[in-house]
Every structure is written in C-alpha cells, then in structure tokens.
Amino acid sequence: MSGAHGRRHAAGARRAAGNGRTGMPGGVPDAPGYVPGAPGYVPDEPGYVPSAPGYAPGTAEFAPDAPLYAPNPPDFGGDWPDLNATDGPGAGPGTGPGTGPGPGPGTGHAAPGSKGPRGGAPRGRIDFGTEITASLVVFLVALPLCIGVAVASGVPAELGIISGVIGGLVVGAVRGSTLQVSGPAAGLAALVAETVMEFGVAMLGAIVLFSGILQIVLGLVKLGRMFQAISLAVVQGMLAGIGLPLMFSQLYPMSDSKAPGTPLENMAGVPGLIADTVTNPQALIAAGLGIVTIALSFMWKKVPGPVRKVPAALVAVGIGIAVASLPGVEVNTLQVGNLLASVDVPGAEQLSGLADAGIITAILTFTVIASAESLFTAAAVDRMHNGPRTRYNTELIAQGAGNTIAGVLGALPITAVVARSSANVQAGAKTRLSRTLHGLWLLAFALLLPQVLALIPISVLAGVLVHSGWKLFAPDEFPKMWRQDRGEFAVMTLTTLVITATALLEGVLFGLAAGVVLAALRMSQTVVRQHIEDDTAKVVMAGNATFLRLPKLIDALESAAASGKPRIRLDLLGVTHLDHACRSQVEEFVAQQRGAGLRVELLMPDLTDTGTTVPAAAEPVRDVAPDVELDVALGRSNVERDSTEVWDYATVGSAAVGGMGQMPSGSGPGPTAEWFYLDTRPMPGAPESPPPLLRRGRDWAE
C-alpha cells in the first residue's frame, strides 16, 4: 500500500471510528460482514469497517433493500424502497475483487448480492414473547372494533368477528406488509350499510367475493402502485368524508336510538336526538357510557406508561359491562349468536344478480375503496417503523385473498386498519406472527366465550366508532392544508362535502376530477402579453400553452387583429409546451390574417425543420443589437451577435426557422418568403435582466 493510499484509509478509519462514537452505522467492529483482513484495515483504529473495493451503488447488483439499509429516517416517505420495482430482496453475486458479502463503504450497508429482509429488518431469531404480547394487544383493540363496525354496518356482530379472523389468519400470513393488520374497517361501514339496505345481507357476500377476485387480478398485473397515484388532498378528503358521516350516524346508537338514514338526515336530526335523550333516563345512561368511552379514547395517551398499554377501548368495554350489570340499568347490549351458524355462502340466486348494473357498480366501488385504503394505510404504517417495507402488489393480492374468503363466508369486506396496525407497531412486533396470532385469539374468544360479548353495551361500541370517525375526519388537516396549498385545500374540502352529501364513490370520483383539473391548470402557466408599437401589434407568449389557456390566447389574438395595424408579430419563442389546440389556433389566425392582406410575422418555438427545400442563394442579414429576452428564452448566453451572420425567416402556416452562421445548403426561404428583422427592443415594463423562464415552477413574468 502506498503512503498516500494508506493515509486515505487511515482517515477513513478515523471517520468510521467517529461514527462508532456517535452510534452511526459503520462504527461497529462486530457488524455482519466485518472482514479484519480486508485491504486498508488498520487494526489500531477502533470501529473501522473496511470499504470493500468494487462496491458500486450505481451497478445493477446494488441492493437498497439489503440488511441495515434504512432509507427512511423520520418524515421520509415509507414507500420509497419499492421504487426499485421489486417485490423481494435483491440477490446476486458481489462484484469486484474481495467484496464477497462484506459491508459497503464505511456505512454498515450490506454488500451487493447479500440477502436479507427488506427495509433493514435485523437478522436473528424471532422473539416469540414479544410477538405473542403484541398479538394480544392487537386482539384487545380489534375485538370491540370488529363488533362495532358490524353493528354500524347493519349486519350481525358475528360477521365482523369472522372478517377479523380472516384478516388475521389469511391476510396476516401472506408476505405483503409485515406489521399492517387487516380486518373490518370503520371507513367502509357507511358503504356497507348502504349496500345492505339496497341489496340485502345475502348479496353482500357475492359483492365482497368478486371484489376480492378483482383485487387479486389487479395485484397480479402489478397495479398495486396505481392506487398511490392519487392526490393527497383527495385521500384526506375521502377519509374526512368517511369520518364525518360516521360520527353523526353513531350518535344515535350511542343513545340507544335508531338513525334516520342519510348523513344529511342524521345531521339534521341531532337537536331532536338530544332532546329525546335528556328526557329518557335509560337513554341518558347509555349516552353517558358513550361519552365516557370517547373521553377515555382521547385522554388515554396521557395515562402513565404501564397502564397505557391496556387499550382504551377495552377499558371502556369493562366500564360499560360493569354499569350495564347494575340493578335498574336497562341499556341495549350486543346480541351475539353462533359464529358458525352466521356463515352464509352466496348461492345461485346471489350469483345471478351479478348482471345487475347496481351490483357491478358496488363491486367496483368496494374494490377501489378497499384497495386504496389498504395501500394508503400501508404507506402510513411503513413510516412508523424501520422494518421491512410493504410489497404493494403482494399486499393487494393478500387483501384480495382475504376478501375472497370473506365473500364466500358472507362476511364483511376487509381492509387494512390504522388503529390495529399502529397498536401492533407500538407493542414491539417485528414479524407477521403477531398479526396472524391476533386472528387466532379472535376465533378462540368468539367460539369459547360468546356469552361475554352479550354483556357489552352497544353505546360503548358506538362511542369507540365516534372516536374513530373523529380521527378519520381529522379537522386539524383542513387549516394545515389551507396554509400549505389553497388549491389542494379546495379539492380536499369539495371531496369531503360531496361524499357527505351523496355517496363515497361519487365523492371520490369528483375529488379525482377536481385534482386533475387543478394539476392541469397549474401546468398551464402561460403568460400572454400584447403591445402596440408604431405600425405593429405584438403578441408575446411564454410558458406552457395548453387548451386550458385558449381563451386567454384567443383574446390576445383578436385584440391584435382589431388594433388596425398593418403588421402583426406573434412571438412564441418563450413557449416551453404548445399543445395541438393552441398551435392550431395560432396557425389558423396567421392564415386568416395573411389572407386578409396583413403582414403577420410568426416566431414558433420549433426551430428545427419545416420540410421545405429551397435554393441556397439567400443573403443573410446582420443582427447588430443583442436580444437579451430572446437569449434567455432560448437558453443562450454570451452570444457575440454583433459580428455573427444571422438568417431568419417565417413561412405561412408553419414554424419559423432561424439560425446563425452560413445558411445550410439545400434549404432556405422560397422566392415568396417574407423577410424581417428580429425586434430586439425590450417590451415596456419588462425586467431588464429577467430570470430564466419557469424557474421554481413559476413564470418569471409573474
């Protein structure tokens, strides 16, 4: 080793040692792949992790999902690793001499070709004690939610438990998202209730069945990522539109009353509900239990650590059971039947109804909403931990498999649930074992202790769902969105209002359309200026010219034509994108005005080819004054214009062609071409030294 080479390695060793002192990867002498005999190893430098030669992150063998690779620190989007378009850990032989499975350069990264869990899951054996404890925590959170969602959906409570069992034992066992927990979700309660009211409980199984099959197909054709190509404002608006009606609908069972019907009717009936509750002592007790449940759900995070590990919903259920058992208390409690007897397999009658347009619409709605909610939740859960990342296509197939089985059994649809997933992460789970076991505990409890479920007051479960609805509504997100982006705030608010006033599918489609329109408007950042000077009406256009800006362009062109000047100049050299509609409008205007006898000079942004073959005997003209604005628009700088021959001409109904230096042989203006000099004088009011066009997404003129 040369002296310089050795000094570089010694410096690298000292940096690695510093990393070891600060706890950064790479400062751990006994890290996996540590090779004391690697080139450049300095034995007296603690914590040195050698940089194996040949390690090249840019090569095909580079595996960002190798062990200890953690691309998502706090606030980093958890879905980043899947941008590599792989659904499994990278594998392959290392490259370069002496690399083998050794670590990356001074960071503790696994070398190319090493195998391991995605997203930086540590190697080692499963901690069964932690996984079992986490599964019990998830079970305690899931039990009241499964029952509450079933009651809110207008179906027997047993169907909610069956869906929870399937979410654990089926979806939980598939290697899609390691820590995400699935089951019946409050977000679909309103949609399920509408479907049951319109088509009946028996038809629900067939709808869920074919929704699951469609999810599997979407996962197999790799469309799992498609559901992430949705504006965040639409997603938040959808969640708020789900949460707001859910809260108002559950205020009625929280007081042992029946909800009137639609979300708007439920909202309008709240004053009458309060009056009836105050005058009815038993309804007042039920409402009190619901209020206590909501208060516990909000305040439980302030309880001391050891006690806080018990879910607030479970504590509320315990209080509700105790109060309901007191003499003189007559509140409605949960009615639970035989779990196996509640299974209702879709028959020929239900399958024959699939030709109905309403049933097909319901299947598509369930598929889109359940898939989107599951994959959005997966992205949120990935941000909660540094373990393996979600494989979106695999997770979509897993959700489809769960819904297929749930449909066969006539149960509720299944999606990923944030509350259970976050409880799983906070309980310390690291593998799929915890979420799978929670389904087993649900099944055992429902089969062995069904009499306990019959003691739970319905008002307590309604209180749990009111709290869930408030979290979905997330009122703090509205002012936050207003401060960040008022256009997105409008999309979010409109999505929420349309869902509340109509239905979930209509609201989501409206929000998507509004998001697309907003994006198109923002992409069409066009500046059109008009100026009259001497005998010329000038129109200068810059930015992205799309059909959305046609009215503005047409106004400018018509004003130029109405000016009465004998010459019109259209300068579009600053246009970065010109769609077909705008180009056609400009060319038609030019042809029309030239046909009327006016002289129209057209400068188009396409300066490459007109398809014209003409004699090369054209005389160049000299442009002796620099055009600063044109240079900025074309990206030119330091052009010696006072001594360079510049040729420039325009053709009817086509792009202008220009260049510098000698005219290319075999091409040039025809005998009827119209010559003109470029007007190099700046427009009144224009900045003397304008910044580049579209810098930071905004046009310089604005």
Mind explaining what this structure looks like?
- There is one protein chain.
- The protein has 702 residues and is an alpha+beta fold.
- The chain has 24 helices and 10 strands.
- The chain has a 4-stranded mixed sheet, with helices on both faces. Strands 7, 8, 9 and 10 form a 4-stranded antiparallel sheet that branches.
- Helix 22 (550-562) links the parallel strand 4 and strand 5.
- It starts with a helix and ends in a 27-residue tail after the last strand.
- The relative contact order is 0.11.
- Mean pLDDT is 74; it is low at 1-123, 607-680 and 689-702.
Secondary structure layout plus pairing:
Layout: H1 3-22, H2 128-152, H3 157-169, E1 182-183, H4 189-199, H5 201-220, H6 232-250, H7 263-268, H8 270-278, H9 281-299, H10 305-308, H11 312-324, H12 348-352, H13 357-382, H14 392-408, E2 415-416, H15 418-426, H16 433-448, H17 450-453, H18 458-473, H19 477-484, H20 486-501, H21 504-523, E3 526-533, E4 536-545, H22 550-562, E5 567-578, H23 580-595, E6 599-603, E7 621-622, H24 628-634, E8 645-650, E9 657-660, E10 674-675
Parallel strand pairs: 4-5, 5-6
Antiparallel strand pairs: 1-2, 3-4, 7-8, 8-9, 8-10
Helix pairs in contact: 2-3, 2-11, 2-15, 2-16, 2-18, 3-14, 3-16, 4-5, 5-13, 5-14, 6-18, 6-20, 6-21, 9-11, 9-18, 11-18, 13-14, 19-20, 20-21, 22-23
